[in-house]
TrEMBL record, chains B, D:
It comes from the Archaea. This is Tryptophan synthase alpha chain. Keywords: Amino-acid biosynthesis, Aromatic amino acid biosynthesis, Lyase, Tryptophan biosynthesis. It comes from Natronomonas moolapensis (strain DSM 18674 / CECT 7526 / JCM 14361 / 8.8.11). The active site is at residues 60, 71. Coiled coil: none annotated. InterPro entries: Aldolase_TIM, RibuloseP-bd_barrel, Trp_synthase_alpha_AS, Trp_synthase_suA. Pathway: Amino-acid biosynthesis; L-tryptophan biosynthesis; L-tryptophan from chorismate: step 5/5. It is an enzyme of class 4 (lyase). SUPFAM superfamilies: Ribulose-phoshate binding barrel.
Length: 412, 292, 412, 292
């Protein structure tokens, strides 16, 4: 249950039996394919989810950077992000375990929508906890969850964001644990979640491996993925941990890497790059916390990266030197958002845009050339940007970005 | 109680010697909880002292953590008030030092605060807790599986480490916990999070009977809000009752109504007395077991 | 250039040379794969677009209707609808033809976004004409086009919907025809567009054919697709025209199949079911028109079906009895929208919902049993509903639908 | 002109006999366009008659279609006004009957209206047009490739069918068109849609020279708005000029300003005179070609 010293199971006693039950189910169904679980999972991922997703050469970026850049198109997965890999896996697992109800937390709403979809698909009642502030920031995703038949329960505690929603979902789980499965949305939480969620997402790197082999007759040189909790990151890295492949985890640099201890606010979400070891939401990992151990309110222009913790395995891999953490700030992420939209015809999620901001910072015309990537570079396009349109436009208007499009089309 | 009383205590294995916390359960015990510093440092001191006056046998004093995943809305709000009032681990220890009571104290907090404090993770916190006279720790997000470092530090500095046993805890896990627990075992009366309830859960009897063979005081918490609750829990076999949200409710309402501190303190003392009385009555209703 | 009497090339003389040039290019590149055009097209459709899209068994609908229902998941194509098949094909063709600029019209914005994406992907300047009213109804799609770098030009003539946008794009084309290709968005317009657009979309039915063969070892019994202009329809039907497969084109019944001649308004878009032969936008086909030949303003809750014309080949196939046209009204389409969202975890476009409304009307608990479908039924899920969230919720609130979810989650 | 003059005309092949429209180009001709019924039936009658007084040799009278894909904004708006005023094909024919002028008329409309009219697609319309005295048709969305049914009907009822030749029209297509055209050929001066322009396109000369070998009057349209434009187009070899948007602009502005019909009519007559004079002057500036 550990990754070095990271990970573990720091949860209330009431949850431990469920976690033991889940650990057993994970071993039997996921690791040992009991009752053909993994076969059914893979088949549903293909038919319902749309796997495999393509590995596409990015023609314009390859030219811009004079290197080979490939895109792993998780944005094409049903729901618009990699999130379904995990949500479908866990909801199906809950069904195999005989659970009768699904709960989940969501921040930006991507995990919530993926879970709501999977639950509708598998005919499971579903309740999603979401911070009040996020509910009002992410209306379309709330609509989608409700349309899929999920209950959406506002969380009014604290700032009303992901952190509070996770805590609240854990509270529900502590009450309903006997009949309910909590679908954690990233490679965080108590064991076995970090390993299990990674395994559900590992299909991303499995496909990258077979697709680069088939198209290019080789492995990728570098894999780049944004990292909030880190599920798309570990999904994109998992198969390459023992190989000679460079792995870059791009965190949200927000507006600044400094912190405001007084206000308990970190204006970024760079847990891997700047966080300190601690215990949050069931696991020991790198955290954004103040000197006393209180968790900081994180920040990013991308609400999906806006989390004070990170997957324990990523913390471990960073300490080991296997994964290189880097940061991209809000401005550069927005520029990258526009660049990919205009140059490649793919509007990425703001989360995803961070990964491309890193390429530009390192390889672009004004890049610092600090990184020498091994070729080809595969960037995980973890999600599409439809959910972020309003936010991206609003944030763009606040700034003086070189490549921002004019938006003066509407009446009044 | 001032910290000097125990500051000189040398490291030892608490489980092999007498435990001040366990000793507090000689008669059916009343164990109230309040969040330290809720809503202010000074008012909170008076509230805790009122509980002592009301008959508390042990006081669980909450050191607030920003992510209290085991708490219901009542205690979540207490945490918010206390943190807004500037509570920190260091201030918490100062709070304990400033308390003028003669009731053993358990510190209830989350693991990250224990982990972050001082230079040596876990050990620094326990050392300091012992220095200010805290008798034990309750850590809701620390199951027995992850507790070895804290157990070791508690042993080193003579603190008890209280574990929670839930309705879902059974079999090997129960043994595992009971091997590590000291002071008392916190019997969670029902699934879920903390919070006062109108009626009691019927899980309690079942859990208590699973614990019958273990020689550690059993304190039942979650949902107890009246003297009658306390009585029936003790009657069902508990050695004591833990009451948090019902007390915090008084603090919260007083705070909201801008009531004078003394008035709130009096209310707390009164409910404390009711609960303590209930516990005693519960004990009288059943054949008192022989303690070995 | 004709389908029976339908089709033809009814355009201003100035465009005819361009249409001849296009006809030649269509023959060479599309039909004869000159310079490997079709190979590149198919490869880009796979890598950029995400083909093949899955053929998924609809577990809940199959149970509900006690028949085998399969979903062709065009909603998973990049951009969220089948539209990219055609847009990518035409933009690539324009590149092969040496054109320097792309123009297109759009109604709901789906064709516009697909074209903007394809143009960004292939590095072609792009201008999209869109009615002012549609611009204000379809903000997210306008954002997407602008983000992809396309110019969006409002059309203020008439009601400001698709019909006017097409006319305006034709005017642009009449001016810039030497350097510009007009990417028509459906199987309408002058020859060779109806055949060419069909051929680009035919990949849908090619995949259905191979997927049913692989999964079920047989052909589909029935194929059901919604029909506005009819591009997803013909794409889903194309390979089966000569086979023993039932083909149902589901048109928008709107609020009623009657018309208001005085106001020039048809409160539906059922050109195949109720239209009269006439000439519009370059082709002879079935049209919604008044007794004088003036084109009617059509209506549907789904703006993508809201067009007074329809592809000439569909008109012909309906006359021949090969394709059965049916209608589903706004209410039933909305109910079907909610049903698919809740039961299958797929939020369909409102266009697509019409196809499912037809299944329910025929096979549902309150169905009239009027149609005996040959099994298995394949329904083309032509697009996803993200673009329609606001509209669907607004239209749902106006009605008393049995399966409408509560939407009371937001503040105030 | 009243319809009776030609109502009795028997079916024939117009291209093999004399054409009233072609005859109108004996001297450099001025061919104005207005949308019938813009903005009202009665006012529009006066406007058309004003053009006749101003020297029009042929008048292109627009029968408005709801989707005028070949028109620029000026004529689009005229179409909207006319349709809003209740214009229909039948009203259009009544309009022609009500006109009191002695200038040959061409009807400019879109194919769907011709197709829908009456019981026999195409033929009914042409028959009725001939009956009210219309001399020819101009159909902007009907290229020669699709024109056989209409050509046949026009031949049957003795109407001319005018085709448009664009700057992009060349080679076989030009031959194809010129085999089918009668009355005059509408030479589109530039790419795009109708609309008045400040300056003239330089495509005109090239197109006219491609047409040199064909013995049909060439009328140049698209963008001509002044007498000087008209003069230079005729000087470049045109047999006449077609002017629409510049005239419609006068109607539109007058309508917007609520100007008296007579005042607008006077303005139209004045511009018509300028344009006709310009055409004549253009003819004088060049060596007049021998007409065969």
């Amino acid at each position: 249950t550990k990754f070095g010293d990271y990970g573990g199971q720091y949860v209330p006693e009431a949850l431990m039996p469920a976690i033991e039950e889940l650990t057993d189910a994970y071993r039997r169904y996921v690791l040992n394919n009991e009752d053909g679980f993994m076969d059914e999972f893979r088949e549903r991922l293909a038919d319902f989810g749309g796997r495999p997703t393509p590995l596409q050469r990015a023609d314009q970026l390859s030219a811009r950077y004079d290197t080979e850049v490939y895109l792993k198109r998780e944005d094409l997965l049903h729901g618009g992000a990699h999130k379904l890999n995990n949500a479908l896996g866990q909801v199906l697992l809950a069904k195999y375990m005989g659970k009768e109800r699904i709960i989940a937390e969501t921040g930006a709403g991507q995990h919530g929508t993926a879970t709501a979809m999977a639950a509708a698909h598998l005919d499971m009642p579903c309740e999603i906890y979401m911070g009040r502030r996020d509910i009002n920031r992410q209306r379309p995703n709330v609509f989608r969850m409700r349309l899929n038949g999920a209950a959406v329960t506002p969380v009014d505690v604290g700032r009303g964001t992901l952190k509070e929603a996770i805590s609240e979902t854990m509270r529900d789980w502590a009450t309903t644990v006997e009949t309910t499965h909590y679908v954690i949305g990233s490679i965080v939480g108590p064991a076995p979640f970090p390993a299990m969620v990674r395994d559900f997402h590992a299909v991303i790197s499995e496909e990258i491996e077979s697709q680069t082999a088939e198209k290019l007759d080789r492995s990728p040189g570098s894999v780049v993925a944004c990292a909030g909790g880190g599920s798309n990151t570990m999904g994109a890295f998992a198969e390459f941990l023992d190989d000679d492949v460079e792995l870059y985890a791009v965190e949200a640099g927000g507006s600044s890497l400094t912190v405001d201890e007084e206000a308990g606010v970190a204006p970024h979400s760079a847990s891997l790059s700047t966080g300190e070891e601690g215990v949050l939401h069931g696991a020991r990992t790198k955290l954004l916390q103040d000197g006393h151990g209180q968790i900081m309110e994180s920040h990013s222009v991308s609400s999906g990266l806006d989390y004070a913790g990170v997957g324990p395995q990523l913390s471990h891999l960073v300490d080991e030197g296997r994964v290189t953490p880097v940061t991209v700030d809000d401005d550069d992420a927005l520029e990258a958002f526009h660049r990919l939209s205009q140059d490649e015809g793919i509007i990425p999620a703001l989360e995803t845009a961070h990964a491309f901001g890193f390429l530009e910072a390192a390889l672009g015309p004004d890049g610092d050339g600090s990184v020498e990537f091994a070729e080809p570079i595969v960037v995980n396009v973890s999600g599409r940007g439809d959910k972020d349109l309003e936010a991206a436009i609003e944030e763009t208007e606040k700034r003086d970005l070189e490549n921002a499009p004019e938006m003066e089309v509407f009446d009044q | 109680m001032s910290s000097e009383d125990r500051a000189e205590r040398t490291p030892q294995n608490a489980r092999e010697t007498s435990s001040t916390l366990a000793d507090a359960f000689e008669e059916p015990a009343f164990v109230p909880y309040l969040a330290a510093g809720d809503p202010t440092f000074d008012a909170s001191l008076e509230y805790v002292e009122a509980l002592a006056r009301g008959g508390a046998d042990v006081i669980e004093l909450g050191l607030p953590f920003s992510e209290p995943i085991a708490e219901g809305p009542t205690i979540q709000q207490a945490v918010v008030r206390s943190l807004a009032g500037g509570m920190t681990p260091e201030r918490f220890f100062e709070f304990v030092e400033a308390l003028d009571i003669d009731v053993p104290l358990a510190c209830m907090t989350y693991y990250n605060l224990i982990y972050q404090y001082g230079d040596e993770p876990v050990r620094s916190f326990v050392e300091r807790a012992a220095a200010v006279g805290i008798e034990g720790l309750v850590v809701p997000d620390l199951p027995a599986e992850e507790a070895d470092p804290l157990r070791a530090a508690c042993d080193e500095f003579g603190l008890d480490l209280v574990f929670i046993v839930a309705p879902t805890t059974a079999g090997e896990r129960l043994d595992h916990i009971m091997e590590r627990v000291s002071g008392y075992v916190y019997v969670q009366a029902r699934l879920g999070v903390t919070g006062a309830r109108e009626s009691l859960s019927d899980h309690t009897g079942a859990t208590l009977s699973r614990l019958e063979g273990y020689d550690v005081p059993k304190a039942v918490g979650f949902g107890i809000s009246t003297g009658e609750h306390a009585a029936s829990v003790v009657e069902a076999g508990a050695d004591g009752v833990i009451v948090g949200s019902a007390l915090v409710d008084i603090v919260a309402e007083g705070h909201e109504d801008d009531a004078p501190t003394a008035e709130i303190a009096a209310e707390l003392e009164s409910l404390a007395r009711e609960l303590k009385t209930g516990a005693i009555e519960g004990g009288q209703r059943r054949p008192r077991p022989e303690r070995t």
